[in-house]
Write a structure and sequence with these properties.
Layout (H helix, E strand, L loop, with lengths): L5 H23 L7 H13 L3 E4 L8 E7 L3 E7 L31 H22 L3 E8 L7 H7 L8 E8 L3 E2 L6 E10 L15 H15 L8 E8 L11 E10 L2 H22 L2 E10 L6 H14 L6 H14 L2 H9 L32 H7 L2 E7 L10 H5 L4 H22 L2 H14 L20
Helix pairs in contact: 1-3, 1-12, 3-12, 5-6, 7-12
The structure holds zinc ion.
Pfam families: Peptidase_M20
GO biological process, one term: folic acid catabolic process
InterPro entries: Amidohydrolase, Aminobenzoyl-glu_utiliz_pB, Bact_exopeptidase_dim_dom, Peptidase_M20, Peptidase_M20/M20A_hydrolases
Length: 474
Amino acid sequence: MSTTAPELNYIDCHSPHFTAMSDQIWNLAELRYEEFASAKLHIETLEAAGFRVTRGVADIPTAFVAEAGNGGPVIGILGEYDALSGLSQEAGALTCKPSSEISNGNGHGCGHHLLGTAAHLAAAAVKEHLERSGQPGTVRFYGCPAEEGGSGKTFMARAGLFDDLDAALTWHPSVYTGVISGTSLANIQAYFRFRGKAAHAANSPHLGRSALDAAELMNVGVNFLREHMLPDARVHYAMTDTGGLSPNVVQPNAEVLYLVRAPRNDQATELFERVKNVARGAALMTDCQLEVVFDKACSSILQNSVLNQLMDKHLQALGAPDFDADEIALASAFQQQTLTDEDIESASRSLAQAWRDPKPLFDHIDLYQPGKEGQLYGSTDVGDVSWVTPTAQCYTACYAFGTPFHSWQLVAQGKSSLAHKGMLLAARTLAGSAIELFSAPETLAQAKAELLERRGGKPYVCPIPDDVALPFRR
Ligand SMILES: [Zn+2]
């Protein structure tokens, strides 16, 4: 893609370096709150480019803020770099097999190696623009750890790190290209710990109180609760302690981890209270003690149509990535040899506009329709940022159409040239959108007014209470 705007030329010039950086982070594949080497790589590159970096923000060792420029407006660009466990996968391979380049068994199954790198590159291009133009304003790159199951940004929001932003921009790698116009689900995650009393299961069962029974009854109760909750709500659980391996011992301890999701924060809170009541009932039935340990939470996305339209304009002007024959052939091989018709059909369903007869690679830009906001059934901690400051996000096509998130197929395509092309389109979109905002005070004012209106006059309340410690500090 040839471009003429200087900030886009900056991206063209620096793209080989950043492509290599995304590959390096793919190899590192570090899990939530353990992204030490990935964060270091970002920080060192940012400092070398002249950013002022604050490390360990919000008391999180792998979180940081890098800033350039002076005064207002202050535009934030959000980056992530965490991977998922158990998803190590050979790059480019069409069968599921662990990668020899990844030593820890993890894998970038959500493309956050691309996400953070494009956001970083965009921030560097914006810095270059501010310096060259002499325009007042500050660009801030947020190094956000632990999006996967850690709610890193929610803890950062609780610490007030986004409070002085005029707007925030980000993106996510995907199988198609377009502004993200759907709202994600708010969620709350908590451990339910039951304590009973051990006893010989045959000699003196009457002396035992089974914590495992309590956990099982809680799960049964919650499964009955499903019939009477909002259709768009979700409740998931994992048994994290079954109380031991001996059936002849009455299990004195058991623990189950619950993840509750609902379209709005207040609905998630209400459903969480009902789940807690089921747990209390289970504890009562089994004569066990119950302890509820709040783990993490995140808010739903508050859409901002003013910012979405601005980002959509830049995306439409840049156009879809120009995939070459080799890239189309690779995507076609993934589609035909590793994906099902249902995978592909499911990807089509999440588009604003139906895509009939899908090709291996998404070749256009999904039309943004203001006011038409679908429901996304995942959750993201970008939600919390969107309640604090006007926020917009886009998807760009980095993978064969139909590739599911959190799959080995997605990891396998993460170092391909097609993933890199999608990443660079995201960097251009973020940079172009941010640069326009520095000279569009009325757009920022409209975006802020829309945020206040959508919040209904209420302030942002972080869904993680103040007394909840970071997961790795417990
Ligand atoms: Zn993700």
